[in-house]
Amino acid sequence: MKFSIYKKGQGYYTRLCTAFAGVGMVALGCYQLKESLSGWLPADMADTSKAWLSALISVSVFVGLSLFIYLVVNKPKSAEFMIETEGEMKKVNWPAKKEVISSTKVVIITVLAMAVLLGLIDFLFHWFFQVIGIITTKA
Prior knowledge:
Layout: H1 12-40, H2 47-73, H3 76-91, H4 97-131
Helix pairs in contact: 1-2, 1-3
């Protein structure tokens, strides 16, 4: 097992962000594991022993999975994919800030209009079903 970085200068930010995201998910999972381990440990065990054992298990899992993420990010096949992804992202023609803002306004207005329309239709159906006696209680 070697700990060298495959094609060190290429795909740096993509691999770095992937590794940080993976380690962040592992950290959250290990925190949740630590919290739930106390319920799985024997009831006759001292509270301090439970705390230390659950922390030790969580830290061990964190270190193991973080090492696994490091190895996967530097595996030639996955590293090549991330290098190529970063290269393709540099070729993208990103829209201007003004265009993004106007598109966002259109989306927000459309979503609000659809919400109002669907709320109105829901209200009308509820009223109609109350009038014909299918719904007998008020919402």
